[in-house]
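Q: Convert this sequence to structure tokens.
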Amino acid sequence: MKWSRRKKALLVAGVLLLIIAVVLYKLADRYLIEHVELVVPAASSMPDNPGQEEAPGSVIADDWNYRSGGTAISIRKVETGSGEDTVTYYVADLQLKDGASLQSAFAKNAFGRNIIENTSVIAANNAAVFAVNGDYYGFRNDGVIIRNGTLFRDEPARTGLALYADGSMKSYDETELTSASLLDSGVVNSFSFGPALLRDGAVADNLEQVKVDTNFGNRSIQALNPRTGIGLIAPGHYVFVVVDGRMAGYSKGMTLVQFARLFEELGCTEAYNLDGGGSSTMYFRGRVVNNPLGKQSERGVSDILYVAE
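A:
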């Protein structure tokens, strides 16, 4: 009788261990194990890429500015408040000859899930002079993902961002526009994170109640957080803002409403929220400009937006 009970106990324990192993594998498969769907050459190695044409004339540059041909980049650091209310952020003003000069690159030159590298590594591998983290598309399996004119994923799910060849940009409902219509209208890159911060010059509604997705491990994004965003002043004239946060005395971060109003103050008519938190990184001429999480330590991401040398 005792042996029978022992066997039953061992059987139950074995089943429980098997269930735990299966659950752990599924979690690792979903959030940790790399799944390469397509290898993509680095943009800097692709021929006839309009964003990689050699700019005529000399390069004028220092630690905060860059000018060459039709590209002008200027970055400034801003600190507001004091003590626990200090907020530190970086504003990059970019004037480009066309929308194709603003490119995207994937971590490890591969499209798929859970493939990550630091923003600075992806930027260096693509001869970037300026870069910020993108939408971390590899954390999820939905969204409309167009990069450098190629459609990689077509699973409409949320408010996306469309960047056009003429240098304009617009947020849109992924469920209302087809990927074919986006490509036909001149979309070069699309991002799937959000929310939209500004539309036609006005701060978007309901930023206090936004929900990007419900993936395991997600935080609420409405409260004070490090942030990365892109805004548009005029076609070809972009503003990127990276806000540091979660570090008392250095920077507490911004709410979504504060972030939207900042882009409004900077003169943008359109603005969109990209991946934030530990991902928020600005790279310029070989260095990370900001201080991610106040720890001088980058977090791996799946993609970047960048301008090449």
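The helical segments are 2-31, 119-125, 179-184, 256-265.
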